[in-house]
Each structure stands twice: as structure tokens, then as C-alpha cells.
Write a structure and sequence with these properties.
755 residues
Length: 755
């Protein structure tokens, strides 16, 4: 065959024979009907929303975009999930070139390049993953759409925006910048829906391939989001401090704790009233009532169980957590029955058939939050049962550690022997195996610890399991152990999986902070110090992991300040003149974590001079972390006037972290007046964590006022519930600590994001 004939034949094959050019198979008529029904609901919702806040140009472009969406629904050509058809996996562009609804609308408005770029970046991303993409946020602003509405177009079956409350982005400045996802309390409509993580059945959630994109850089910020409360013992900082009155009398901060009368005469009656009133805030009121009840949770438990039996209740799975918070014996029995799918469990949620898998998983989480020793056998049985869905088994495995660590030594040893045997065999689903290391470490068993350490030191097993082992080792108690330090150092530098390297790095910092020895091994300390110095000086590559090294450096300096002066100087240098904005932000947070005095002045200068939104927010939070009272007024100014929701969010956290009693009234006032859901989330967190009785009256007034937006009322209820707790207000923190959020199954991932 001549060269010319060969080229002609090859061209013919490329144009007509390759699979990419084949006609796409048609979805089933049932699937087309279901998607059209979804889009019909979307259009009905979006076409009738109030657009008075938009400019005429924005309204015109919005109308045109919705017209394209209607044409898309009529045409009925929807993308096909050819990779994981059993899951609701999003596609911007499928294997046959078909666009999803959102991508089609973006294309038709003359932005096809944006569609192709987003597909190349992450073809399976949810809108919540892309809020840091400036081109997408600009497109949304130009077309008069909020991020919530875009998410609703993309996945109407998963995200249901409230129709009676204006979207929070409509009340904000039009700045097209990414916003942080506020940690939602388990009540309806508190923020963006969590990004679903498909359960592959094999146990390993689908991890989307990402390039060197900003979406992946958010991984370190997710770790910070899930773990920040562990590094600010705010209630102790606030109430242990003593102030002196003008007359010279000492007044302890404990005087500001809610009294028994506050609980019995003010808080509980108000929460009981609200939990029996407006259906829209009933779930939030029940959760707050359960948190506030403490010694007598029976009435709150009864109200919650009535809610669970009501088929009209929308948040029954989440409300199982209220039973966990209550720590009530009857609630524990109900949760065990639901987890085991018994007749009593089905009756508890008014189900005649099987208890749904997600409900069983939330029941497992609730038992973990309750830290119920009596639930250990049931949790171990469910976690070991291969016939049970992976999501349920993973939730049971995480909760097993929280419950078994409080059991007797014999029970811990028995559970540890069972888990170690299965962990070494490695025959369980990867997601369950990835949840095991932290549970094994909690049991304080030598053989279990050795199995976890062996997996890290020998780079054995699946990448997610190695990453989980590294995280779990960072939560080890006691003095720094040379074998653990060496294993984490090796993994941090040489593991082939980027997540294992990152988690080993942050685990090294946490291990240092948890060191409880009177005098740590100086050889080990010097080795760790050289490691961080080498990283910050660029002696070995830490591609896509530098933010983790920076945060871990801050934790090391916090534990060993005498060995950290030169590290602090390097952190300051990165924060002031570093290249990537994420690295500068991480360096600022690391300075806050270090609590080193040499970092205070540079951070104050950065707060005043920096124009970068990401850096300013990190600096605001960092100043609060280190307790810099001189930052009080600048932070309050930012909270009131900054144009960015993201910066206001972190400024509110920073103000709370300062533990300044004079800020209680202004913070409550700001909660009542702000239009930002992100700011409300931060204010809820700090007011709840501070636990000051002077906030109770204002919060009850906000929650009881039906003229307030529902989200304001729900946030106020969340703060009231946390204020009433004697223990750490971050009631889900034990569940979050040491868990591999990158490998988490859907229920675990959702709970990780709850404050």
C-alpha cells in the first residue's frame, strides 16, 4: 500500500470508525421522563423568583439562560454516565460530547470555552467544588444567578433551595469571589449541600483526577475546616481568664457560664416552645433542646422520636444525631435497633420495610457521638458484616473507636484483636479498611498500633489506607516515639500517593503537639526540625503539599517554641512574600497555630496592608488563634465593612477566638443584622463556643421572631444549644479527628462538615 493510500485509510478510520464518533445510545424513556420532570421543577422555581435586586442587563441575560434551559429539557438529549452508572455522577461533557444542563446553558450563552475548560479541570465536579473559579463566578454574576441556583440546575434531585427564603447570595455584595462553605449545623437549609461522594460498592469512593488546579489545593483547607476546633480551646480560654473590676474585686470568667436557673427557667422552656411550633425550624429547635437538656433529656428525646415517626419530616436522618447528643438511655436503645435493622428500629422511624442504609449509617454516627460503651457489640457486628452496605460499615467502624476507647481493658483488647486480624488480612472494602486505623489507635493496643505502623513504614496496602494510617499515627498519645517519627518522615517524602504524603506531614505536626513528655527526645526533635527547615528552604520538593508542611511547622513550633525561632522567620517570609496565595494563607495560619510572639507584629501589618482576600481572611483568623487582643478593633471593622463574605467569615472567627467578653453584645447584634450566611455561621460557632450567658436573651429573641429569615432563626438556635453544654461545644469534633476525609463515604463525609 502506498503512503498516500495508507494516510487516506487512516484518516477515514479517525473520522468515522473511532468510538468517539459513534452515535450516543439513547437513555431509557423512563430516565428521560425523570430528568425532564426535574428540570421542569427547576424552571418553575427559577422563573418565578424575585429578580428585583438584579440590574436590567442581568435580568435579560437570566431570562435568556433559562430559555436555553427550557429548550434543553424539550430536546431531551442528556449525558450518559458510562463510568459509574449506578451512581448520580455529574458530567459536564459525556463520552459522546453531550452537555449537562448547566454546561449546555453556559455553551449557548457564548461561553463554550469555559465549559471545555471546566470539563478538562474536573469533568465530574459539582458546583460546590468550583466556587473558587473566577470565570464561573463571573458568568453566574453576569447572568443573575447564585451558586445555589447553578447547583440546583446541575443536580435538582440532590439540592433543593428553599423557596420561602431569599438566596443568601442575593443579599450580598456582587463580588464574584469564592466563599467558604460554612460548617452547617444539622438543621435544614443552613448552607450548600455537601458534595456527594459516590460509593463504588468496592468500598473506595471515586476520586476524581485533578491536575494542578485550585480545586485540589482546597484539600488542605478542608483539613483545616474539619480540625480547627481542636487547636482553639476557646471555652477554657474564655472562662478560665479572670478579670478585675474597678473596685479591685476578682471576677472569674466562670461567672458568665449559664446557671441552672438560666437553663431551667429560660433556655429549656424557650426551646421546648419552638420545637413544638413552626415546622420549618422544628428540627433545629429539637437539636438545640437535646443539647441543652443534659441531666433530663427525656422530653427532648420524646419530641425527637415523634419527629422521626412523622413521615412528613424532611430531616429524619440528621435528627438521629439529636438522639446521640442527648446521651439518653432510651435514645441509645432506639439507635441500636435502627442500626441493626430490627423490628423495633423500623417502628422507631415508622418504616414497614427495611431501614434505609443512610438511616442506619446516621444511627451508627449518633452512637459514636454518644460514646456508648454498650453499643460496642452492635457496632462491631455491623462493621464486620460484608453483606451490609459500605457506607453503613464505615460509619460503624468510625463510631466503634469512639465507643470502645471508654470500655474496659478486656473489651478493648478483644475488639483490637478482631480488627487487627481483619486489617492484616486486608480482605474488606478499602473504605472500611481506611476507617480502621483511627479506631485501632483509639484502643491503645500494642498489636493494633504495630499493624498500623507497619502499613506506613513499608508503604503497604491501598493508598487511602496508607493515608489513614498516617493520620491515625498523628493522634497517638504519649511521648514522641522514634519509630513513628521515622515512618511519618519517610512517608511525607517518598510515598507515591500525594494524599499519603500530605497526611503524613500534618500527622507529624500533630504528633509533636500531642507529645506529653516532660522532656522530649532531643535527637528526635532535631530530626523533625531539620525536616521542616529543609522543606521551607526548598531542599526537597514538596509539590502540592507545601501548605501541609507550613501548617505542620506551626504545630511543631507551638510544642517546641525554643527550637522554632528560625522556623517562625521562614513562616513570616512565606506569608509576606511567598508566591502562591494558598501557601501565603497557610503560612499565616501556621503563625497563628504556633502562638509564637514573633509572628504577631508581621500578621498585624499584613492585615492592614494586604489586598488579597484569601490572605486577609487567613491573617484575621490567625490573629484570633494567637489571642492578639490588639487586633480586636481592626477585626471588628472588617466584620462590619469588608466586601468579601469569606473575609468577614474568618474575621468573625478571629474575634471569637480572642475570647474578649466585651464583644458578646456586638457579636449578637451582628448576627441579627448580617445578610451573609457565611458570617452567621461563624458568629454561631464563636457565640456557642464562648458559652456566655449574656448572649442567651438576644439569641432567644432572634430565634422566636418569625419575621426573621429562617436561617437566622436556625443559627440562633444552634448557638443556644451549644452555650448550654458544659463540655466542648464542638460536639462532632471527636468524630472528625484523625479521619481520612478524602476516603470518607457519603454519611461520614456529611458529618465531618457539621459543626
Amino acid at each position: 500500500m502506498s503512503t498516500r493510500s495508507f494516510l487516506t485509510t487512516a484518516l477515514f478510520v479517525a473520522l468515522f470508525i473511532v468510538p468517539g464518533r459513534a452515535e450516543p445510545p439513547s437513555p431509557s424513556p423512563r430516565a428521560i421522563k425523570a430528568k425532564r420532570a426535574h428540570l421542569s421543577r427547576v424552571l418553575s422555581e427559577l422563573e418565578t423568583r424575585d429578580t428585583a435586586h438584579l440590574t436590567p442587563a442581568q435580568r435579560a441575560r437570566r431570562v435568556a439562560a433559562l430559555r436555553h434551559l427550557r429548550a434543553y429539557a424539550v430536546r431531551g438529549q442528556f449525558p450518559l454516565n458510562t463510568e459509574l452508572p449506578q451512581f448520580d455522577l455529574p458530567y459536564f461533557i459525556d463520552a459522546y460530547g453531550t452537555r449537562c444542563a448547566l454546561a449546555y446553558v453556559v455553551d449557548q450563552t457564548g461561553n463554550a470555552t469555559l465549559t471545555r475548560r471546566l470539563a478538562d479541570l474536573d469533568n465530574h465536579a459539582w458546583v460546590a467544588d468550583l466556587l473558587d473559579d473566577s470565570d464561573l463566578t463571573l458568568w453566574l454574576r453576569r447572568h443573575g444567578m447564585s451558586a445555589t441556583e447553578a447547583a440546583y440546575i446541575q443536580a435538582p434531585s440532590l439540592i433543593d433551595p428553599p423557596s420561602d427564603v431569599p438566596d443568601e447570595s442575593e443579599q450580598e455584595d456582587p463580588e464574584p469571589t469564592p466563599e467558604p462553605d460554612p460548617e452547617p449545623i444539622p438543621t435544614p437549609d443552613t448552607g450548600p449541600a455537601p458534595t456527594p461522594t459516590p460509593d463504588t460498592g468496592s468500598g473506595r469512593p471515586t476520586r476524581t483526577r485533578r491536575g494542578r488546579a485550585t480545586a485540589d489545593a482546597g484539600s488542605w483547607s478542608n483539613w483545616w475546616r474539619y480540625n480547627r476546633d481542636a487547636f482553639v480551646n476557646l471555652r477554657e480560654r474564655y472562662h478560665a481568664a479572670a478579670s478585675t473590676t474597678p473596685l479591685g474585686l476578682s471576677r472569674g470568667g466562670r461567672a458568665w457560664r449559664p446557671s441552672m436557673r438560666d437553663r431551667t427557667k429560660v433556655l429549656l422552656p424557650a426551646l421546648a416552645k419552638l420545637s413544638n411550633g413552626n415546622q420549618k425550624i422544628r428540627a433545629s429547635a429539637l437539636m438545640a433542646w437535646s443539647m441543652a437538656s443534659q441531666s433530663d433529656a427525656a422530653p427532648a428525646v420524646a419530641g425527637t422520636r415523634d419527629y422521626l415517626r412523622d413521615p412528613e419530616s424532611r430531616y429524619r436522618d440528621l435528627m438521629l444525631l439529636a438522639l446521640g447528643v442527648s446521651n439518653d438511655a432510651d435514645a441509645q436503645s432506639a439507635l441500636v435497633a435502627i442500626l441493626q435493622n430490627t423490628k423495633a428500629g423500623r417502628r422507631a422511624i415508622d418504616k414497614k420495610s427495611q431501614v434505609p442504609a443512610s438511616t442506619r449509617a446516621f444511627a451508627a454516627v449518633a452512637l459514636g457521638i454518644m460514646q456508648s460503651v454498650d453499643a460496642v457489640p452492635a457496632l462491631l457486628s455491623v462493621a464486620s458484616d460484608k453483606k451490609v452496605r459500605t457506607d453503613v460499615r464505615t460509619a460503624a467502624m468510625v463510631s466503634l473507636g469512639l465507643c470502645a476507647e471508654h470500655a474496659t481493658a478486656d473489651v478493648r483488647a478483644s475488639v483490637a484483636a478482631t480488627l487487627t486480624k481483619h486489617f492484616k488480612a486486608g480482605r474488606w472494602d478499602d473504605a472500611v479498611l481506611a476507617a480502621m486505623p483511627m479506631t485501632m489507635i483509639r484502643l491503645r493496643d500494642a498489636d493494633a498500633r504495630a499493624a498500623v505502623l507497619r502499613t506506613v513504614s513499608r508503604f503497604r496496602g491501598a493508598a487511602d489506607v496508607r493515608a489513614s494510617c498516617a493520620l491515625a499515627l498523628g493522634m497517638s498519645e504519649g511521648a514522641l516515639q522514634e519509630d513513628v517519627v521515622n515512618a511519618l518522615l519517610a512517608t511525607s517524602r517518598r510515598d507515591p500517593d500525594v494524599y499519603a504524603r500530605r497526611f503524613a506531614t500534618i500527622a507529624l505536626g500533630e504528633l509533636c503537639l500531642r507529645d506529653s513528655s516532660a522532656e522530649a527526645n532531643p535527637t528526635v526533635v532535631r530530626r523533625i526540625r531539620r525536616h521542616f527547615l529543609g522543606t521551607l528552604d526548598g531542599h526537597f520538593k514538596a509539590r502540592r503539599a507545601m501548605e501541609w508542611h507550613l501548617l505542620a511547622t506551626g504545630l511543631f513550633v507551638r510544642r517546641f517554641p525554643a527550637a522554632g525561632a528560625d522556623l517562625v522567620r521562614r513562616l513570616v517570609r512565606v506569608a509576606e512574600r511567598g508566591g502562591a496565595r494558598d501557601e501565603r494563607a497557610a503560612a499565616a495560619l501556621a503563625l497563628g497555630l504556633s502562638e509564637h510572639v514573633d509572628g504577631r507584629a508581621p500578621l498585624l501589618k499584613l492585615l492592614d496592608r494586604s489586598k488579597d482576600r484569601v490572605l486577609r481572611g487567613a491573617v484575621a483568623e490567625a490573629l484570633g488563634l494567637m489571642g492578639a487582643k490588639e487586633a480586636r478593633m481592626p477585626l471588628r471593622k472588617i466584620l462590619l465593612k469588608d466586601k468579601s463574605n469569606a473575609v468577614r467569615y474568618q474575621a468573625a472567627l478571629g474575634l471569637g477566638y480572642l475570647a474578649d467578653g466585651s464583644m458578646i453584645a456586638p457579636l449578637v447584634k451582628q448576627l441579627a443584622s448580617t445578610g451573609s450566611g457565611q458570617t452567621r455561621a461563624a458568629l454561631t460557632r464563636v457565640l456557642g463556643q464562648l458559652g456566655d450567658r449574656r448572649a442567651i436573651a438576644g439569641l432567644i429573641e432572634l430565634a422566636d421572631d418569625e419575621s426573621n429569615p429562617r436561617s437566622v432563626r436556625e443559627r440562633a438556635l444552634g448557638a443556644l444549644g451549644m452555650i448550654a453544654r458544659e463540655s466542648d461545644a464542638s460536639w462532632t469534633l471527636p468524630f472528625r479527628r484523625g479521619n481520612n476525609f478524602e476516603a470518607a463515604t457519603p454519611t461520614v463525609r456529611m458529618v465531618l462538615g457539621i459543626f
